[in-house]
Design brief:
The complex is a heterodimer of chains A (294) and B (325).
Chain A (H helix, E strand, L loop, with lengths): L2 E12 L2 E12 L3 E5 L6 H8 L7 E6 L8 H4 L2 E4 L11 H11 L5 H10 L13 H13 L5 E4 L8 H14 L6 E6 L11 E6 L2 E7 H7 E7 L9 E9 L3 E8 L9 E4 L2 H10 L13
Parallel strand pairs in A: 3-7, 3-8, 5-6, 6-7
Antiparallel strand pairs in A: 1-2, 1-4, 8-9, 10-12, 10-13, 11-12
Helix pairs in contact in A: 3-4, 4-5, 5-6
Chain B lengths: L1 H39 L2 H8 L4 E2 L6 H10 L1 H9 L3 H20 L2 H4 L6 H39 L13 H20 L2 H27 L3 E6 L5 E2 L6 E8 L5 E4 L25 E7 L4 H29 L3
Antiparallel strand pairs in B: 1-3, 2-6, 4-5, 4-6
The chains are: A alpha/beta (294), B alpha+beta (325).
Chain lengths: 294, 325
């Protein structure tokens, strides 16, 4: 399987702060990958690096096999919807399409016009008169008009109401249903992406916490419930992600390496959301760990 | 890219064109009437007759005619001094927003990810804004230079402060500098208002320093002398830029500064007369920059500001390439 985006030891420092540090990940081609993490975790930094707006401080980044910074040819193959969907407020929709046609070499004007029409957006509407949802849709249509091999979306639905969010995700999924386009979209809420993504990257405080196909991740993680006990090595468990105790009972969220033979544990499936929350609750590697019971 | 630049800035271009047209609508009729008055009052003929001799001996100078003329057009002179701020407007409203607005609204992330490298984006935008600034400011400079001719000839001179600054080639250089400063400030502060404030402050400070401290020292000043006693006096309509005047005694020591005195030989030696204090051989002096240095001074100052503009634009490009990443 080919790789649409690949990073090794990628880091980006702004003045003294590392927005992204020691980041290694890959996104297989054809996937819809969700980039999840709290605000300030480095999601925008990673996406801006991937589209060449930023230059890495350290490490390597390859997008469609090329190094994105300053690569104009790559820009034609990558669609990007930036955070807050910036558009020129005094341009009409038609003028934005003209702009794309003038600046991009793989631009599909009929496709862009057709998408605007299906969204019910008159071409002579000015951007400043559009609602937030419509703006996001226009930005998406502009990115799709490049017929990109990789589509990057930075918090595209963060500022939208729930209805507009659903419509946006529907349009996005319809557009990339053929599977030729790799999608990487970020959100600080998993809920926005859970139904559409099949690949997951969890970022926290500039580090990658979790990476992998959604189905694999969900099936290899389990919740174990059993009588209260000190944690010891449990057969079939590769790592304990989170543990919680009541007076009588211990609940663990674990990454398994095989079946759990010990009958004292009841094994439950976990939802993707449980999984992400457990990883986000984990301290990031390399940071001081406080208050963990031994 | 050219289409995009035009689409984004056509309103500013339109405002500039309208502003230039409005300026022409004011300057052309008043300029024509000023020229008519200059000829009809006899001042033009008088000045022609006086010619460009360095010293006058007879009683004819055109002083009274020139005074009448300059008093009549005092408002015009004041107005021309206000025009000195026009290049600043280009810096504030063309230069400062050029990069700062994109960065402030995040639209650089739209336009720099479309398939045009940001270097190409920057060079096309900078090239077009430089071209537009040159054209508009050249129009303004030609118009004002033409308009001020009668006032220059009437004795104000093209070298006097704030008169020098609105004619010739320096307005173009000031405008280019203002625009480049605005663009560069935009790459540093990345928001429109701070960039405008920085361009405003930087422009005024540098212009003031060059005006006050540099311009007078670029070319050596000359000294003109003429005796206290005698009828020879300098021609007032040469348009020289006079830095200081005074009186020296025969030994060359300054005995009085800030004044010039002339006495006819008949009053010399009268006690209590105006020339009683001066020994024989005392002479008036003037330290001045000759009017003929107008164009050398113009090109030197224009060169300075154009070079600064070029430097600022290169710094802006460098910041876009290496600092906004």
């Amino acid at each position: 399987m080919s790789t649409a985006l690949e990073a090794h030891g990628l880091g980006k420092r702004f003045k003294r702060n590392w927005a992204l540090k020691d980041c290694s990940l890959h996104v297989p081609a054809g996937r819809v990958a969700a980039l999840v993490g709290p605000n300030g975790a480095g999601k925008s930094t990673l996406l801006n690096l991937a589209v060449g707006l930023l230059h890495p401080t350290e490490g390597e980044l390859h997008v469609l096999g090329r190094s994105p910074y300053g690569d104009r040819d790559l820009l034609d193959r990558v669609g990007f919807v930036a955070q807050d969907t910036p558009l020129y407020p005094d341009f009409t929709v038609a003028e934005l399409i003209t702009m794309g046609a003038r600046l991009s070499r793989r631009w599909d004007t009929p496709l862009a016009r057709d998408r605007m029409e299906r969204l019910g957006l008159p071409l002579d509407r000015r951007v400043e008169t559009l609602s937030g949802g419509q703006r996001a849709q226009v930005a998406l249509a502009l990115a799709l008009a490049k017929r990109p091999e990789l589509l990057l979306l930075d918090e595209p639905v963060a500022s939208l109401d729930p209805l507009a969010r659903r419509e946006f995700m529907q349009v996005l999924m319809g557009a990339v249903a053929d599977g030729d386009t790799t999608v990487l979209l970020s959100s600080h809420l998993l809920g926005d992406l859970e139904r559409v993504c099949d690949y997951l990257i969890v970022l926290q405080t500039a580090h990658v916490q979790l990476l992998g196909g959604v189905d694999e991740l969900v099936s290899e993680h389990k919740a174990l419930i059993g009588p209260r006990r000190q944690r010891a090595d449990i057969a079939g468990v590769a790592a304990v992600i989170r543990e919680s105790h009541t007076d009588k009972q211990t609940t663990l969220l674990v990454r398994t390496s095989g079946p759990i033979p010990d009958p004292a544990w009841t094994v439950h499936d976990v939802t993707l959301e449980d999984l992400v929350l457990a990883y986000l609750a984990q301290p990031a590697p390399g940071r001081p760990v406080l208050g963990v019971a031994k | 890219m050219i289409w995009l630049t035009w689409r984004q800035h056509r309103r500013q271009a339109l405002v500039a064109a309208l502003g230039l047209a409005a300026l022409a609508a004011v300057l052309v009729p008043t300029g024509i009437s000023m020229r008519n008055a200059f000829t009809d009052s006899g001042l033009a003929r008088c000045l022609r007759e006086v010619g460009s001799a360095e010293f006058l001996t007879g009683s004819t100078d055109c002083g009274s005619l020139a005074d009448v003329f300059t008093t009549r057009y005092e408002t015009a002179t004041t107005f021309s001094m206000l025009l000195v701020f026009l290049p600043l407007l280009a810096g504030l409203f063309w230069g400062a927003p050029l990069v700062a607005r994109e960065l402030e609204h995040g639209t650089h992330r739209l336009v720099w990810t479309q398939g045009v490298s940001r270097m190409r984006w920057a060079w096309v935008k900078f090239g077009l804004i430089i071209a537009a600034t040159t054209v508009v400011s050249a129009g303004y400079a030609l118009l004002v230079s033409w308009w001020l001719e009668p006032l220059n000839d009437a004795g104000r001179g093209r070298l006097s402060e704030l008169s020098f600054d609105v004619q010739g080639v320096v307005p173009v250089a000031y405008a280019l500098f203002a625009v480049a400063l605005g663009v560069f400030a935009g790459t540093v502060w990345q928001r429109v208002l701070p960039a405008m404030a920085a361009a405003l402050a930087g422009f005024l400070v540098l212009r003031f320093v060059v005006l006050q401290q540099v311009r007078g020292h670029v070319l050596p000043a000359l000294e003109r002398t003429f005796p206290v006693i005698g009828g020879q006096r300098p021609n007032p309509s040469l348009g020289d830029w006079i830095f200081s005047v005074g009186i020296k005694n025969a030994a060359g020591e300054v005995v009085s500064s800030g004044q010039q005195i002339q006495c006819s030989p008949t009053v010399v030696g009268q006690p209590g007369g105006p020339c009683a204090d001066f020994e024989p051989g005392a002479y008036n002096f003037q330290l001045y920059q000759p009017a003929g240095n107008f164009w050398p001074l113009q090109f030197i100052e224009a060169g300075l500001f154009t070079a600064l503009a070029a430097l600022l634009l290169f710094l802006a490009v460098w910041r876009i390439r290496s600092r906004l990443v």
